Amino acid sequence: LNPIKDLGYKTPTPIQSQTLPHSLNGEDIIGQAQTGTGKTAAFLISILAYELENPPEEIRSPGSPFALIIAPTRELVLQIQKDTESLAKRTKIKSLAIVGGIDYEKQKVKLASRVDIVIATPGRLLDFVRSRSIDLSSVEILVIDEADRMLSMGFIPDVKSIIAKTPDKTCRQTQLFSATYTQDIRRLAAQWTLNPIKVNIAPENIAVKT
Question: What is the spatial distance between Cα 23 and Cα 93, in angstroms, rounded to a whole number?
Answer without folding.
Answer: 19
